[in-house]
Structure to design on (108 residues):
């Protein structure tokens, strides 16, 4: 199984960054998000310019450690974008915000 890691440094305190991204149902901070809504533990997201919906399920949420984990709740068929055979059936992800000094955050 392939593993990928993305990270960035944001020039804002960790508590401020976490306050913006901690709500699993609100991903308006992700560029090109058209809609996002929460139904139980499932987040439904559509992106501008696409006609498919991504459904992700919350696995864990820890405010004290500024982290949450989620997985793909329904198979994602990307054939319309990339051609036949481009389906994703498994995805697990984790978002964490770590302080990197009093005014800077490391987001993974």
């Amino acid at each position: 199984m392939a593993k990928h890691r993305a990270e960035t440094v944001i020039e804002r305190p960790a508590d401020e960054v976490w306050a913006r991204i901690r709500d699993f149902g609100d991903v308006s901070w992700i560029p090109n998000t058209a809609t996002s809504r929460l139904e139980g533990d499932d987040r439904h997201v559509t992106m501008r310019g696409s006609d498919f919906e991504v459904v992700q399920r919350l696995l864990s949420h820890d405010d004290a450690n500024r982290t949450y984990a989620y997985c793909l709740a329904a198979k994602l068929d990307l054939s319309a974008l990339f051609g036949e055979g481009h389906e994703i059936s498994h995805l697990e992800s984790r978002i964490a915000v770590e302080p990197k000094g009093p005014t800077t955050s490391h987001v993974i």
About this structure: The chain has a mean pLDDT of 92. The longest strand covers residues 53-62. Residues 14-21 form the longest helix (8 residues).
